[in-house]
Amino acid sequence: MEPDLKTIPWARRLKLRHLETFLVLESAGSITAAAERMHMTQPAVSHWLSDIEDVIGSPLFARGRKLKLTAAGDILRRHAERMLGDVRRVDEELKAVRSGLVGRMQVGCIHSAALSMVPRAIAALQEKHPNTVIHVQEGTMVDLLARLGKREFDLVVGTIDPRARQYGFATEILMEDVVRIVCRADHPLAGKRKPTWQDAVTYPWVLPPANSLSRVRMEEAFSEQGMALPQPRVETVSVAAIQAHLRATDCLAPLSGQVADFYTSLGLLSRVALTPVTRFADLGTIWPEGSSNPLLSEFTASLKKQTKSAK
Q1: Could you give the domains of the chain?
Q2: Alpha-carbon span 55 to 71, nearest angstrom
Q3: Which tens digit of pLDDT belongs to each residue from 160-194?
C-alpha cells in the first residue's frame, strides 16, 4: 500500500530550504554564525528556524550561548542529511541520462580494495554497460561510513567493521585479507628463504598508529612469538609514505595483503616470508538497505566474480 502523505501534517509543507538552513544552524552552532555562512541576515535565519519548527511541530534546538539539538532535532538531522544526499544523487543521475549515460554509481573504498578488486570489477561492469560512470573515492572507514549514511555513496568496499552494522547498513563478506610484511627489493630479508620473527625485530619498523586494526594485528603477531612489538621509527597509514620510506631505509612494514601483493607484483617492494601469516580482516561490501540504484546488484556481482578469480 502506498503511503498517504496527507496523514503526515508536515510532509507537504517541508521545503529543501528548511533542511539546508537547519543543517547549517546545527553545524554553525549559532544563528549569527549560520547567517554569516549563508550570507543572510540574522532575522532571516531566525525566520527560517521558526518556520521549520512550526512545520515539524517541535523545537529543534535548545537555545543558549550555543544551539544544541533537541531529541526531535537529532532525528531530523539524521534524516535531513540523507534526504539532501538523495536529492544530489537524483540530480547526478538525471544529468547522466541527459548526457547519454546509462547509469552512474558512487563507490567509496579503502586503499586495499581500490588497488585490487574495485578496478577489475569496474572494468567487467563497463564491458557489459559501456555508458556507465563509476566515481570512486578513497577514505578511512569512519569517513566512508559517515558519508554512506548521507547517501553520498551507493556502496562502500572495505573492511567489514562492527561500526557498519551499528549504522544499520547491509554487509556481505567477499574475502579474507591477511597482513604481509614488506621491505625494499634489495633488503637483506627479502632474499632470505626462512626469515624468523627474531630476524625481523632487529630492523627498524614503520607501523600504523596505535589502536588501528593493523597495529592491533601486529601486536598480536609479535605476542604469539613471545616478543614485544618493536618501537616504530615512523607511524603512518599512508601507503605512499610507507613505500617511499621503505625504499630509502632498512625499515620493515606491515601492509594489507591486497596492497602488498599489488606493490610486489610491480617490483616496487618485496615480501618478507614470515610465518605464520597473520590474519588482517574480512573485506566486503557495505550499502544502505533499500538502495534504488539498479547498478548496485550488478556491480556487487562483478566484485564477487573478481574476488573468486583472485583466490
Answers
A1: 5-79 (1.10.10.10), 83-175+282-310 (3.40.190.10), 176-279 (3.40.190.290)
A2: 16
A3: 877 777 777 888 998 888 999 999 999 999 988 89
